[in-house]
C-alpha cells in the first residue's frame, strides 16, 4: 500500500523565491496559507497582478511531490523543502497525474482543490543554474511535461503539519488533465 503524507510545509510573508520550512501552516478557506505572500482571493503573483489584479487566485497553495526534490538532489541540485517556492511537499502522491478538480485532504480537516500545473519560470535558473530545464521534460509525443508541482485553492481550512496523512478524492465525470495556471 502506498503511504501518502505531508513531507514538509513552508510559507513566506514576502515575495521571495524560496519559502522557509516550518512546523505547521494554517490553510484558510478561499484564501490560501495564512501569513504567506500569496494568500488572498485575487492573484498575488507579481507578474499576474501587473496583467490583471482582479483575476481569481487559482494559485493559493503550491504543492510539490517530494520525489521531485529527491530526483533533483540526485542530479546535484541543492534543494530542500521550500526551495522552489512550494507550501506543501507531499510523499507518495502522483500530483502531476491528478485531474483538474481533484481534492487533497491534508491532515485532520484541511482540503485543497487542484487547479492546475505550476508553470516554471526563469526564477528557477536565478536560484540555481539549470534548474528550470531540470523541471521540464518531454513526453514520447514531444509535448512538454511540467514537473514543478501543482497549484490549488483551499476548500476547507485547517492546520497542516509534516507527517499528516493525505487522501485523494477524484472528481466525478470525465477527468480533465492538468494545464498550467
From TrEMBL:
Domain MOSC residue range list: 20-169
Any single Pfam family the record assigns to this protein: MOSC
InterPro entries: MoCF_Sase_C (IPR005302), MOSC_domain (IPR052716), Pyrv_Knase-like_insert_dom_sf (IPR011037)
Transmembrane parts of this sequence: none
GO molecular function (one): catalytic activity
Name of protein: MOSC domain-containing protein YiiM
Amino acid at each position: 500500500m502506498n503511504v501518502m503524507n505531508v513531507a514538509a510545509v513552508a510559507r513566506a510573508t514576502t515575495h521571495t523565491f524560496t519559502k522557509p520550512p516550518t512546523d505547521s501552516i494554517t490553510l484558510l478557506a478561499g484564501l490560501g496559507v495564512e501569513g504567506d505572500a500569496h494568500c488572498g482571493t485575487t492573484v498575488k503573483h507579481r507578474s499576474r497582478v501587473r496583467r490583471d489584479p482582479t483575476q481569481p487566485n487559482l494559485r493559493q497553495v503550491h504543492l510539490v511531490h517530494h520525489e521531485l526534490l529527491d530526483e533533483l538532489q540526485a542530479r546535484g541540485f541543492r534543494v530542500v523543502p521550500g526551495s522552489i517556492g512550494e507550501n506543501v511537499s507531499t510523499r507518495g502522491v502522483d500530483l502531476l497525474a491528478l485531474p483538474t478538480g481533484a481534492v487533497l485532504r491534508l491532515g485532520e480537516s484541511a482540503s485543497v482543490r487542484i487547479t492546475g500545473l505550476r508553470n516554471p519560470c526563469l526564477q528557477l535558473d536565478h536560484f540555481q543554474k539549470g534548474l528550470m530545464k531540470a523541471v521540464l521534460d518531454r513526453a514520447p509525443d514531444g509535448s512538454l511535461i511540467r514537473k514543478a508541482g501543482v497549484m490549488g485553492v483551499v476548500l476547507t481550512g485547517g492546520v497542516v503539519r509534516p507527517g499528516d496523512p493525505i487522501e485523494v478524492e477524484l472528481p466525478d465525470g470525465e477527468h480533465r488533465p492538468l494545464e498550467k495556471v
